[in-house]
Amino acid sequence: MDFSCDGHESALLDCRHEDYYDHHCHEGNTVGVVCGDIEMADCDGGGTRTDISGPLYFRRGSKPQEMECKWTIGDEDNPIGDNLIISMNYNGDDCGPHVNIWDSSSGEHFYSDDLCEYRKFALIERSSTQVDITVETHRHDEDIPLNGYYAIVNGNIESAPLVGGWDVSAINVTKECFHIQWSKLTLSEIDQPIRVYVLVVTFTKHHQLQVIGRIVPSNTSSTWICGLSPYRKCQVKVVAVDESAQLHKSSETFVTTEQDVPSRAPYFERHEIDEAGCLQVKWEPISEDDRNGEILWYTITYVAACFDGQAIGHEGNVTVDGASDNATVCDLRPGLKYRIGLSGTTSEGTGPIDHRDVYASCGGERTLTEINGTIQSPNKPCSYGGKQNCLWSITPDTISPTKWIWVWFIDFRLRYDHDSSNCRRNDWVGISTVDSGSETLLCRYLEQVTVLIQSSHVNIGFNAWAHGEGDGFSASYQAVQNDITSMYDDDKTCLAG
Asked: Which end of the chain is more exposed for a tag (fewer CB within 10 A), N or C?
């Protein structure tokens, strides 16, 4: 129900309002009216915590106002330590509640996060005597609790003294998790009972050092850490907090999560056809954060493709060592369009494939000696593209001397720049004879056109500038031994030679 109040009403129902089930409010504008004390959420009442350590629990309630919880940790007027360690652990599939932490003394807002991925095991350390924590969620369907813990200590984790002979070990390792165990410290090893243990896990992600972990009660000697990436090398240690808020540190161990397939494809840096007609490929290797294992090899696949990447037959692949970042592919058929793919493989399989399109070159000069024949643009009947410089040398092998060569073009549609009518700035077909020393150029879109060349040897060239794709052309030729000039005196016939 929507209410619109001016401020002079004596009762809520005096305000303008719609029917009971009609409203236009989104959740951030809703309010609730309840009788008695308001419970913000199920969070053990929130409030101030001044013990050396304790749990922090949050679960959203069923009412709109039950979406957040607030705690104050420590007492700056009567501090028992100079450092605070806080862990926030969330086990949902999606991101968790939003956590904000302020330093009470300075007012600095030093932590803000939604507890996603590995940060679902957030471990925050702050040199302070008091902090304020707010946890809130706006999801209606969120019924997974946030389990946190805090410890007020003297000194910091890095400078904690090492307890000789106190080791930690991994007893179960998966692609995203590992299970760490340790022996409980006794009074024979330190002179105070233990309040909590702090599991500290450090690793590098996106070239930055990340710290996650958990705080667990003193009766615990093992726990899980999850949300990690596959093949992630982690440094692990346990820190004990005793009854006097002093820290004691175990030795360190290294744990690497299991391998998986790469989560990202290698990135093409360069892919081009060289003068020999071979495809030169160079790539940026898969990053450490995305390879998820040791890259055993990279694979370059190629398949001849037509419209919309549809395969038209010729295909293959080249595999190179995982330490490589380049490869050469020479098994390409002249003029065809190829869809090339690039992927990396670990012991667990092949990851995503990055695709590019490339056009093979014409393949050099072709000599045609038949009395009649056909020529067509590269990749016909599909579109042509890429840098092309093709040449067909037509020298019919006839018994009697060839006087004329008759060439007729159909389906002539070449890519062109609308800002230029100069054929040489566009893709073009050039027709010349050995004796003439000049070319007749055809470009853009043409209806059916016939060219008669008075010569026994004709060169037909095709040039494309790699600025895009075009439909191309098809042409047929016929060697003629008779004088046929008078037979083709019309506006669709070019006389050359």
From this structure: N
pTM of model > 0.90: no
422 burial (CB, 10 Å; 0-12 / 13-18 / 19+) is exposed
- Per-residue pLDDT tens for 428-462? 999 998 777 678 899 999 988 899 998 999 999 99
Cβ density class 233-258: b for 16+ within 10 Å, e for less: ebebbbbbbbeebbbbbbeebebebb
What does the alpha-carbon distance between residue 128 and residue 114 come to, in Å, rounded to a whole number?
23
Query: How far lies 74's CA from each of 101, 115, 156, 392, in Å?
Result: 13, 23, 16, 87
Q: Which one-letter amino acid corresponds to residue 75?
A: D
- Cα 289 from chain centre: 11
- Give dist(CA 102, CA 100) in Å, integer: 7
Helix (H, G, I), strand (E, B) or coil at 337: strand
Half-sphere exposure of 270 (CA within 13 A, CB side): 11
pLDDT value at 414 more than 90 = yes
Nearest by Cα to 223 from 206, 211, 238: 238
What digits encode the pLDDT tens for the residues 298-324? 999 999 987 555 556 789 999 999 999
| Those residues with Cβ within 8 angstroms of residue 152's Cβ, 6 or more apart along the chain or in another chain | 50, 51, 52, 53, 73, 74, 79, 80, 81, 83, 84, 245
Q: Which of 69-73, 309-313, 366-370 has the lowest mean pLDDT?
A: 309-313
Q: Which residues pair with 150 in a beta bridge?
A: 54, 86
Radius of gyration of the chain measured on its C-alpha atoms: 38
Percentage of the chain exceeding pLDDT 90: 63
User: In whole angstroms, what is the distance from residue 42 CA to residue 61 CA?
Assistant: 6
